[in-house]
Write a structure and sequence with these properties.
alpha+beta, five-stranded antiparallel sheet, rod-shaped, disordered N terminus
Length: about 260
């Protein structure tokens, strides 16, 4: 800009000088000689050339300056666009992070609630363990062994603990909804152990009969199952065993039941 101002000043001075020269030529036109006229004309031509040159240089300088301004404006627009994109990405990242933090907090709360629930089920199953029939207890004992003794300080994962609880409950549910016959060794009324066939009616009642006709009834208790002799119902129990072994047609068999 200082260069353009300097050139504009020089142009003005040249125009002023040319004007003064022409004015002087007009006032003294009667006394002007051919040589002085040629000199004035040459000066006027030189002045016009100088004006044309200055205009051309000024136009070129203006174009260069304008191109630089346009380039700078383009760079500014590009920077503003990149800054806007950066702010947008940062806002999305902050929003995503906030969502992840909230989701993580929800998962932690759900995990804490599930841990409390599983611990309650584990305590309940420990209490129920002694009331399970021997065949069922043998089947679920590996799951009981994997249950932590202290739910407050254990390295067993919550997922594994949940699987153990669900596995035990599933086996208990299946056994309770079925009639199960097994062969066991039980001490009879004469005090001697003998092999018997035991029929469990769910988790509530059981009956056994020996090949010699000894029979009995079993019921669950807080300390385990208790068995009492009931030799008088041996024929009925034998009928049930034969039906379960497909040795007799299905039929109704009357057996004593004690509801607790």
């Amino acid at each position: 800009m200082s260069s353009l101002n300097a050139r504009t000043g020089a142009l003005s001075a040249a125009v002023l000088a040319a004007g003064l020269a022409l004015a002087a030529a007009d006032t003294k036109s009667e006394a002007t000689t051919p040589d002085s006229a040629r000199a004035s004309l040459a000066k006027w031509v030189e002045t016009q050339q100088l004006i044309s040159k200055e205009k051309q240089e000024w136009q070129q300088g203006k174009q260069i300056l304008q191109s630089r301004i346009d380039a700078v404006n383009g760079e500014i627009a590009g920077l503003e666009e990149r800054f806007g994109e950066t702010r947008r990405v940062a806002a999305e990242a902050n929003g995503k992070k906030a969502g992840e933090v909230a989701e993580n907090e929800d998962l932690q709360r759900a995990g804490a609630e599930l841990a409390t629930w599983v611990a309650g089920l584990e305590r309940g199953l420990r209490t129920l363990e002694k009331r399970l029939p021997e065949p069922l207890h043998v089947k679920v004992k590996p799951l009981f062994d994997r249950m932590p003794a202290d739910a407050g300080s254990t390295n067993v994962s919550l997922a594994e603990r949940y699987q153990n609880v669900v596995g035990i409950l599933n086996e208990i549910g299946k056994f309770n909804n079925d009639i199960t016959m097994v062969t066991e060794v039980r001490t009879l009324s004469d005090g001697k152990p003998a092999e018997v066939r035991t029929v469990y009616v769910g988790l509530a009642q059981a009956y056994f009969v020996s090949p010699k006709g000894d029979a009995g009834i079993g019921r669950p208790g807080d300390s385990g199952w208790t068995w009492s002799a009931a030799r008088e119902i041996a024929p009925q129990i034998e009928q049930v065993v034969e039906v379960l072994q497909n040795k007799a047609k299905p039929q109704f068999v009357s057996l004593p039941v004690k509801v607790q």
